[in-house]
Batch of 4 targets.
Target 1
Amino acid sequence: MAKKKDRTDELIDEMLKDRDPEEILGESGLLKELTKRFVERALEGELTDHLGYEKCSVDGKNTGNSRNGKSSKSLISSNGQMEIEVPRDRNGDFDPQLVKKRQRRLPGFDEKVIFLYAQGMTTREIQEYLFELYGVEVSPTLISNVTDAVLEDVVAWQSRPLDAVYPVVFLDAIHLKIRNSGRVETRAVYLALGITLEGNKDLLGLWVGESEGAKFWLNILTELESRGVRDILIACIDGLKGFPESIESVFPQTQIQLCIVHMIRNSLRYVSWKERKAVARDLRTIYTAATVEAAEKALDTFSDTWGERFPIIPKIWRSNWENIIPFFSYPGPIRKVIYTTNAVESINAGLKKVTKKRGAFPSPDSVRKILYLAIQRISKKWTRPIHNWPAALNYFTIVFGDRVPV
């Protein structure tokens, strides 16, 4: 038995009958006209509620207030720009809620702009997109004002309380071009990715600095402490000079571990594409060694094989050996957590995706907005704990004892 259509379906069918897509969705289409009428009817309803009586009703006599015509207002919506008639009262104290005084955009438009901004689109691209799709002309100032609302979320996110203990924290930085007093400067954006006791990834914050330096990292670590972090078991870092000392001054018990991926990447910078595969294969024998002694022997072998052609590579590894070798004292599950920097790499890749179109950012706040939105999107994919986390956590409790809460 066919389901009987309700009155709403019948009305919709009647409105859509014999109409082409342009008549429904176009600049002067049905959808836009319905939105306009809905808004105007809703505003009329708000005024009736405010006055306490229906239009033309005798109940309005001697109430001290009455309807006083309408004023035109231009609104931007996700369906384009439209003119609406806003009813007024004689006393001038009617304060509509659906479209507030001085409001120029309907709900949904700001969210659309922020979504486009979060995809990495530039202000000019957003302008062109909105004009082509909706016939709406918006200024760069409007787009900036809409996206500035994100800064409140950034401040709240950046100051939120953190866990007391993180088994592993990856400390890294990317570099972006930012305008400053008419000049374009390369600035470091610092990232701290924590692994929680549950094995989940948590980006603790992002900071825009003057340049990458141990002193700025010290400020970041102090901030993490003020937000509730009491202990970091292992901190994975790059080879920045003075970085270990900065960490030790705030978290003296933290084990410093040089990021293996950074070591590999830095080493391969000096190798041609033709030889990279062979060099990477021989480097692998170093960081996959079972013991420190085996790793040292592998490094000697690598030096014998490649040292004459690339003398800088063995030098890099030997000069950082003190902060590499802790890796070999850990059992397999902990090594995997430390070495597997997929989370860090995925963040960096996601951030580069939304920043690559920009020659230079106009301000540090513009960087914070776009990166925060990108991070929120990236973190939605972090739905599961790190692979084999229970085994790693078990070893953490053995290696670090009472420092791991139970």
Target 2
Amino acid sequence: MTWSRYGFCAIPAPGDITVGGALAINAHGSAIPGSGETMLSGQTYGSLSNLILSLTAVVWSSSAGQYVLKTFQRPDPDIRAFLAHLGRAFITSVTLQVAASQNLRCQSWVDISAGDLFAPPASAGANSFASYADGAGRVEAIWFPFTDTPWLKVWTISPAKPALSVQVTSPYNYSFTNSVTTAENTFFGEVAAGDVSGTPAFEGTAMALVDTGLVFTGTWDIWGQWQNVLLYVKPTTVRIVEAGFAIITSRASIQQVVSDFYTQYTSRLSYYAGLGEYPMNGPVEIRVTGLDRTSDALVSGAQSPILSSVRPRPDHAGWDTAVWLDMGTLPVTAGFSQFYADMESWIWSHYTGSYACVRPEWSKAWGCTSTAPWTSSGILGSTIPAAISAGQAAGDGWSTAVSILTSYDPNSVFSNPFLDTLFG
């Protein structure tokens, strides 16, 4: 493909993931319509799974008595379960729709206080998260615990290079995030040994690295083709574990969602700090997207991905936005899973009713207990299936997706013990 001619509205930040893996977990970027923006033909503000026009999968054929290749078109009802299959299927090829390429400007802000960015709606001003989302449509906040100012990235559609921007012709421009410093290595060793007392100081060091890195690399204001400003995570970037959830709500409620989360998260940080515990030492990442509207597909009769984290709720037509809440930490950190379990319990219970609903971000940690992520039998067996089915028509929820996937792989060739539990 000639990337100078075609592109996507938004994509995940890592550039080393496969297309198949991204589609399996309906990966996403961060984009809603900006002020005055009209969506291009071929775009979606939802997940990458919503761009699928057709796919070919390895499926069981009872007539042939063996596994064969079968191609599903987007209007085929059975494709609903394959559009985001979570690894319960094997896809050999896929056809995606694309749009005209766009040039983007990415500005980084590191001088806006967390209190202003995540303020309650009643006191939110021009520097609120929602105000940036409403204006540019493409935003990401990266906030390190115990620091005062997050790293806010704001992407705007800019056909021509702004005078103050630096043109970039390749991705991964934030080089300071893609290697481990001596200070980081020392801290990681302390955490692995069980000493987390240096966490607050380390978070300040981590944010200072961003501040100075943006200046020294001249990347606080960059411009170029979409992929060159959207891709910034490399395999050498520090690996962390993240718990992640999509909060489905109305665009008007974005600030309320992030403010509620920030208040609860900082409260739990304070609670654990009072116990002398620091289970969280990685950043919080907050992004926004639209939903997987079938009307975005360039074919008539397109089916909706049942297992998508951002599938619309027909019973809440006003819910048009997903706020993605991700909480990161080093996987060797003592007590991190209990912290996740605390936050996850609050998230599922808080974003309810006419306000919002919750779905897991499949590529992240969820179903957490004090022992480990993905181990809560209640969340795996009840909460998640109910969340996927809520508000959908009869025969168009979790059990239908499980039935479709099972019918095409009755021998569970494309499964594992965890998926057997999740889909059991």
Target 3
Amino acid sequence: MSSTGVLAEVTVASRPRDSLQSVRSRYASRLRTAQESIGILSSGNRILIGSGAASPQLLIAELVKQADRLRDMEVIHLLTLGSAPYVALELRDSFRHNAFFVGSNVRSAVAEGRVDYTPIFLSEVPALLGSERCRPDVALIQVTPPDRHGFCSFGVSVDIVKPAAECADVVIAEVNSEMPWTLGDSFIHIDQLDLLVEHKTPIIEFEYPQPNATSRKIAENAVELIENGATLELGIGAIPAAVLESLISSGTKADLGVHTELLTDRFVDAIEAGVITNARKSLHLGLTVCSFCLGTSRLYEYVNRNPFFQFHPSNYVNDPFVIARNDRMTAINAALEVDLTGQVCSDSLGHQFYSGIGGQVDFMRGAARSKGGKPIIVLPSTTDDGKTSRIVPVLSEGAGVVITRGDVRYVVTEYGVADLYGRTVRERAQALIGIAHPDFRQDLVAQAKLRNYLF
């Protein structure tokens, strides 16, 4: 029970050994309206919002409706789809937001200093939520209706939501019959849910941008590094999407496996094309392992009750030691800038936070420790307008080092692959200049000589 006075009147029953009728009875006893459920919140509470496509839109809308009576509320979450109305300027006295990953719905508010950003490895977020430093008073989540045994599935977002629901003082669940029933370590019993709000609504869809010619060329170069039988992790963005397209079109890759935080529609394409089979995985043989999915209704329908997919929380999927148990683990993630010594920035544009650390470091380090593993950073050689090189002498002022010089292995642009592992600074500079855009190579050589990276 929270010291902030949340939900004094609600108690949680012990786990029963009884009938479907009993499950239905206890389910009914927890049903409330959204207004009643949010009505138990008190000023000063810390509220966790469910992740990704499973963010509970009805509960969020009601939270904002009751903003006038609430003050000094901290709202925390990972990447969410849909609106984030609690970051509105006029609600600053009611809500202060803290993002573990900066999505498009809060990016401008972060840039203006109205929203906090906590840099943290995704694998460590569950432990943070379980600590006194950041334990949520209330978790607002979305789940499936319960089965006959009283278990609900977290559906398309298990990631940090399951750990949060297990440590929050109070859990309010939006029960959505449209939510896919996903398998794995992805369940919660109704006895662990304090209040239930039924709300049937389509799961939020996310359309990825179509890869352009540059993204496709980068993908082709990256695919050359992927061995048959490798296990894949792909980050978010157009280039990782293009990698899956290239794997299918190449016609040369077979028996690939998946151990990834994020599942997208492109994975379904590769599965149906027979490229992804999980037949040679050294961990979770035959299974696609992930923690959340973002995509279209096609993806959500595909994972529904599909035993080919196993969803697990982020502290398992993103644990570098678990990742490393996958032989030939190949992690492919995008960056914004890489300097000539190999430092990688992928979360900010100078001082402006753009995304977050997320799971990139977890998978880069896990892949590096895997038998035959390959951590791969991908990026276009220039900004979209072609005026600025993304291979730079030094990172932009304020840019964060997400992947250190010691962690970087492969860097891929549309001009080729730079293998930096075990290379001197001189060799790194030469290799990175070799995959930079030709228009910038001469200046990069001059800048490298100025810094004594090159003779």
Target 4
Amino acid sequence: MEKRIVRFSPPDISDKEISEVVEALRSGWITTGPRTKMLERRLAAYIETGRTDVDCTTEEAIVRHSKRVACLSSATAAEELNLRILGIAPGDEVIVPAYTYTATASAAVHCGARVKFVDIQKDGDAFSHMPEMDYDALERAIGPKTKAIIPVDLGGIVCDYERIFEIVERKRCFFHPLNDHSNPLSDLSSRIQQTIGRVAVVSDSAHALGAGRDFGGQRKMVGAIADFTSFSFHVVKNFTTAEGGASTWRPLEEIENSEIYEMFQLLSLHGQSKDALAKEGLGAWEYDIIGPWYKYNMTDIMAAIGLRQLDRYQGLLNRRMQLLAMYDKACDQMGVSHLVHHLDNMDSSNHLCLIRVPGIDIEQRNKIIKKMSERGVATNVHFKPLPMMTAYGKDCSAYPNAYDYYHNVITLPLHTLLSDDDIKYVCEMLSDVLNEVRG
């Protein structure tokens, strides 16, 4: 077969996104403005309904969907602000799976918390094969200092949140809520912790916009399940704004969504009480600085890309599903394990194609990646377990399942610019390379 160049994960940008960015540039609003607010409303509507065509311009829709999603500069910013609004601080512990990307843990470190890693299930979840936390180990890890758990919907596959919530409910007796009303942030954090009354479930759903799972007797979209959720819109994700991300949260009794949303705005814009849009009115220049906070806002240029991506998003998800079905069939024929993205109780966002080659070691895995590259196919590894990294101790001995999962995993290219023939080429090259490496 003639050699092809198959890139790993380029963005799918159409003329619609380009035109919207041009219009944003011409509009005079290129920082946080009307497009960012519209994207927030449309994402909120999508998470609630599963539809991307909800009209968010009507008065009713503006009331219903405003101040339910906060668009930010990155998923890491979203995760950090989720934790800061929850009041996570020095002395607290945050539980993180050993098998994830650094942002899952670094956001907690930024808040001064201690990260406590938990190993994954042996060979991943029994049905999806996703490297999901060992929930028995999770339950044992919860103690008096635990304030949050960060499950990871890796590859777009949704964690077993019913199991996670059962665990944190059983552990309510360990939880000691914050009681500090000395400033606006601490006051809100204290009231949130007291209202939740248990360890918070703060989902890292960087890969999972559009995924859903049965929860509480009905199918719910990711973003409406965990207490707080972060999404990534980085260039390699299914849905992109080049960089960027978003936070969302489940409604809380006695705390208005608008109060939580306004705190996200303060935290993401230096603690400034008015953003540029709010100061546009006649004589509306004056503002206050509520706290010495951060600069994590999304721009209207980024939101312009997102608005048109959202128009196309269901089609993008459907195409990814078609491509994965081709990969799955070929992997089954080769005897290669792969993620299972769709189950009776769960639909993935089809973000990553992780495969595991039985009977190989790390050296052979790396040789496969090199030989695939020589044939024009870019592959990757998701992920090197965090305890193997210098920043997190460089010792994975306490997390054998995470290390075992990692040693023979390869991520195949998966994006909506791939043709059917590209997938056939990747699979043929993989078959040839496996035969060569296995001898």
